[in-house]
Amino acid sequence: MSYQKKRAEQSRSAILQAAEELFLDNGYSISLETIRLRSGVSKATLFSHFANKQSLFFSVVEAMGARETVRIVAPLDAQGDYLDNLMDFLGRFTTAVVTKAGSGLYRLAVLEAHRFPEIASGEYREGMGKILPLVAAFLERGQAQGVVRADDAAMLAEQLIAAALGYRQYRILLGFDADQSTNDAYVRSAIIGVLTSDGIAAWNAV
User: Fold this and answer.
1) How open is the CA angle 20-22-23, to the nearest 5 degrees?
2) pTM of the predicted model, to two decimals?
3) What is the CA radius of gyration of the chain?
4) Helix (H) or strand (E) holding 92
5) What contacts 128, CB < 8 A, 6 or more positions away?
6) Apex CA 56: angle with CA 122 and CA 31, to 5°?
7) Which 3 state secondary structure label does DSSP give 46?
8) CA 177, CA 183: separation in Å to the nearest integer?
9) Of 40, 89, 93, 138, which sits most exposed with the smallest number of CB within 10 A?
């Protein structure tokens, strides 16, 4: 990699990091100049990467969604005990959603969707749009093993995610902090809801 290309990538990364922090703390109203000062780049460098605040905001939302999705879904393709992997996935998912970054991204997408529908589309595409099909495929594996109920896998995936979040999703949308101490209880209840009697027996034996 050439020196110029490396510097350009470093500058872009610094801008995105600063923008992510400031958008989460202040919403879309934060100025480009404030973001530039936080990132430590020149105006020319900022505009060489992003034409305007809207394009920077889109890039931040998509980057955050893609980054979290990769980390969250890792257990769905891991070796080992099926139910342990399901617990690991849901634990990662719920923790990501109720943390400052995850809940902030969700609120930003909702609050700005009326002005920028592309933001909501990008957040969904990089987030739940990728996660739900993977969860459905994972549940189909459980159905083949006889531990997951033989219902429509796509519907079960949606029910599983909704049950794991519970009422906390509503609190997050309103800007309240979500209680992370209840994560395990929500996750275990959600998993039991999609299991067969054999699956529940195996789950209780864990």
Assistant:
1) 65
2) 0.78
3) 20
4) helix 82-98
5) 161
6) 130
7) helix
8) 13
9) 40
